[in-house]
Amino acid sequence: MNRWTALGDPTRRTIFELLVEQPCSVGELARALPVTRPAVSQHLKVLKDAGLVANTRLGKQRIYRVEPDGLASLRAELDRIWSKTLEAYKVVVEQPLKEQE
Q1: Which CATH number fits the domain that encloses residue 36?
Q2: Is the pLDDT of residue 61 over 60?
Q3: pTM for this structure?
Q4: Residue 53's closest CA among 36, 62, 61?
Q5: Is residue 84 part of a domain?
């Protein structure tokens, strides 16, 4: 699953946003959401497979955090889209008025 599709689910997006603020365990995330721990784990697996989160072991827990490279990739894709949008807008705006009608 690609990164954008992974973030298309509202629960996964909320989990990702929580992890942007601070690393968390599955239990901490489940307490902050109206879903079960197993559901949080499934969402984290999708986010991890998409390269958006990573985890480390701390005793019996896994602590999840945003994967900087995955976030940078999202940012780069968004920057490319935004640049193309601005270029297209510039072309339209700079056309003489008669051509726009």
Answers
A1: 1.10.10.10
A2: yes
A3: 0.80
A4: 62
A5: no
